[in-house]
């Protein structure tokens, strides 16, 4: 699970003709897609799916498609099945937290086309109450990825067959990758030598916690709340 999704994702080993993409018969790992070809491929996808793709961007050799949550399933199905795409694998599902936005979470899908030796990124958005459709019906491998995003960020995926925590312990409160989550957490887990078992206790550390009350946005810090242990 990554927070910034900074790994390189080239679109594919695809060259474009005026009427659409002209695909290499064999994927050549030594052929690098140019920025111009990425722009042309982004325009092609947008023209084919004008109702679903809101926009696309090319930045640092990476092609990204931006879609609304209700457009995620048709776009991902197209990328998986279309002859000029063949993105059969979702290699990762990432969450990114932008607390100042109305839809604070970005959900990022990094897709791989083995047929054309290429990658593409798809982004959608959500918040604490608006869900994202699960892709488990299209890609079996996203099951645990979506569970990680739920566990770390609280992003809810509708239609997931088993959406429960996967990284944190049983009874964990909150979602630790959110930027307003306390750095120390709320509880600590330790082994009690007297009780001869693992115990869960409230954190007892004299540390300044970030205070967001009264701020214009959830991420605008207005001061510190200092926890003093008597």
Automatic annotation (TrEMBL):
Alphabetic keyword roster: NAD, Translocase, Transport, Ubiquinone
Record localization: Mitochondrion
Record has Transport as a keyword: yes
Entry's Gene Ontology cellular component terms: membrane; mitochondrion
Pfam family, one: Complex1_30kDa
Listed Gene3D superfamilies: NADH:ubiquinone oxidoreductase, 30kDa subunit
Main localization (coarse): mitochondrion
Family in the record: Belongs to the complex I 30 kDa subunit family.
Protein name: NADH-ubiquinone oxidoreductase 30.4 kDa subunit, mitochondrial
Organism: Entomortierella chlamydospora
Gene: ALI1
């Amino acid at each position: 699970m990554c927070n910034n999704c900074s790994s390189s994702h080239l679109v594919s080993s695809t060259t474009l003709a005026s009427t659409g993409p002209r695909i290499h018969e064999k994927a050549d790992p030594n052929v690098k897609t140019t920025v111009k070809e990425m722009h042309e491929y982004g325009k092609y996808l947008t023209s084919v799916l004008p109702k679903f793709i809101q926009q696309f961007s090319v930045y640092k050799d990476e092609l990204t498609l931006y879609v609304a949550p209700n457009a995620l399933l048709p776009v991902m199905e197209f990328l998986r099945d279309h002859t000029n795409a063949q993105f059969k694998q979702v290699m990762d599902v990432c969450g990114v937290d932008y607390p100042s936005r109305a839809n604070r979470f970005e959900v990022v899908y990094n897709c791989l086309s083995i047929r054309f030796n290429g990658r593409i990124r798809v982004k959608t958005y959500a918040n604490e109450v608006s869900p994202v459709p699960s892709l488990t019906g299209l890609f079996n491998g996203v099951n645990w990825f979506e569970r990680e995003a739920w566990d770390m960020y609280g992003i809810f995926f509708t239609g997931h067959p088993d959406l429960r925590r996967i990284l944190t312990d049983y009874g964990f409160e909150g979602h630790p990758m959110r930027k307003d989550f306390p750095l120390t957490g709320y509880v600590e887990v330790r082994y009690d030598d007297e009780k001869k078992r693992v115990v869960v206790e409230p954190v007892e550390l004299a540390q300044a916690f970030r205070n967001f009350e009264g701020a214009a946005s959830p991420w605008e810090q207005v001061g510190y709340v200092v926890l003093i242990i008597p």
